[in-house]
Design brief:
The radius of gyration is 38 Å and the shape is elongated. By secondary structure, it is α+β, with helices and mostly antiparallel strands. Helix content is about 35%, strand content about 25%. About 10% of the residues have low confidence. The chain has 12 helices and 15 strands. The strands form 4 sheets. Strands 9-8-15-14-13-12 form a 6-stranded mixed β-sheet. Strands 4-5-6-7 form a 4-stranded antiparallel β-sheet. The chain has a 3-stranded antiparallel β-sheet with strand order 1-3-2.
Length: about 400
């Protein structure tokens, strides 16, 4: 039984409502025309109904605010364009972002060093040098990542190990710096450093925008003041200065786990309360003992008190408070390298005990409130190991003696 015109129109309208917005009036007409019969009257009836249906469908489509004549969706066309413009926009490189980028760069290295310090210098989170390099590639350029892995890591049969040596010169968040724009996607982070260990120099960290994030691309160092001494600062002297600064920071923060990696692997580290070292009484700790330094309550003999003759019997924590970091040596009044000066009545024999060493002294001047007797010095003594890396062999305290 043939359906009435009204019934067929109702079916067409319901079909349209169930159709995707992307179906055009032409498709509706095509669908309707497929139902044409051979009967002439039915063809006329169907054709008329198709034309009317197409007209109604077009009016319905045009009545929707989001659709324009011809089937073009205005909102859908504009939104991807806006999203594309947003994706292409480079985020502003502010001072806050610069600090974030530099901290991420440092953390990528320090996190692996901390892991290695807990596992005999082995990295467990990565199984090959290539994986370590990929880790660095998240925050730095491929060239910088290659330098980092080649300089500080080695691959052996059972995994990846850290090469114990002085680390890179890090950006100091608490010190002033400047931003220089090279282009929208390239900025320089410029920081001036001036101390006895590094000298007066300008550190330039290049930050570039890559794959929708800012990374450290390259690092430059410019010496601002040339050395005027007869013996200019050599590369080895620079290395020893960097290592000494690292050791001092670890001692100040009592980070003995990290410090253990900088202790000489064969000689260990000797602790002496005075600059005239008594080799028979001085206490020597190996790397493992240094790592456990503050975790033991064992009482050791560290030598003899000057002027009293009593044996110095203390736990490592007690010895630390009296004969290692009894003063704020991070803010020393004077820092000297291999310039051993007799400051009190006691003469130094550090170079006799360690003839191949380099000594870095951190000196605190007397306050003047105790007749010039409250001065103190901390001497860090270094020697090179078989890999030519500077290692700590002695921590020697100095103070006024009778």
């Amino acid at each position: 039984m043939s359906k009435s015109f009204e019934e067929r129109m109702k079916e067409l309208e319901e079909g349209y409502n169930n159709m995707s917005d992307s179906i055009s009036p032409e498709k509706i007409i095509e669908s309707v025309e497929k139902t044409k019969k051979k009967s002439r009257w039915k063809r006329i009836y169907t054709t008329g109904g198709g034309v009317i249906a197409a007209g109604i469908a077009a009016l319905l489509i045009m009545s929707q605010t989001s659709v324009a004549p011809g089937g073009d969706n205005v909102e859908n066309n504009e939104q991807p364009m806006e999203e594309s413009q947003q994706d292409d926009e480079v985020p502003a490189f502010t001072e806050e972002r610069a600090v974030q980028v530099m901290n991420a760069y440092k953390e990528s290295f320090v996190s692996l060093i901390d892991e290695a310090n807990q596992n005999n210098q082995k990295i467990n989170s990565y199984q090959s040098i290539d994986e370590v390099k990929q880790h660095f590639n998240n925050v730095m350029s491929d060239e910088l990542a290659t330098w980092m892995t080649d300089s500080y890591f080695r691959e052996e049969d059972d995994g990846v190990y850290v090469i114990a040596k002085d680390g890179p010169t890090w950006f100091q968040e608490d010190q002033s710096f400047e931003l220089e724009e090279v282009s929208e996607e390239h900025f320089k982070i410029v920081q001036e450093r001036n101390n006895e260990l590094l000298g007066h120099r300008e550190m330039i960290y290049h930050a570039t925008y890559r794959e929708e994030q800012w990374i450290v691309d390259d690092i430059e160092t410019n010496v601002l003041d040339e050395q005027t001494n007869e013996n200019p600062e050599s590369e080895e002297q620079e290395n020893i200065m960097n290592t000494s600064e690292t050791v001092l920071t670890m001692l100040a923060s009592q980070d003995m786990g990290s410090l253990s990696s900088l202790v000489h692997p064969e000689k260990g580290v000797l602790f002496s309360p005075y600059v005239n070292i008594d080799e028979e009484d001085a206490r020597v700790f190996d790397q493992e003992e240094v790592e456990q330094f503050f975790e033991t309550d064992q009482v050791y003999e560290w030598g003899v008190y000057d002027g009293r003759g009593d044996t110095i019997e203390q736990t490592p924590s007690e010895y630390y408070e009296e004969f290692i970091f009894d003063r704020d040596f991070q803010n020393a009044d004077e820092i000297s390298v291999d310039d051993i000066e007799q400051r009190g009545n006691m003469s130094s024999n550090m170079k006799d005990v360690f003839p191949d060493s380099t000594v870095v002294e951190y000196h605190i001047e007397a306050s003047g409130e105790s007749g010039g007797m409250d001065w103190a010095s901390l001497n860090l003594v270094f020697e090179q190991d078989t890999e030519d890396s500077w290692k700590l062999v002695a921590v020697v305290h100095d103070q006024w003696t009778i």
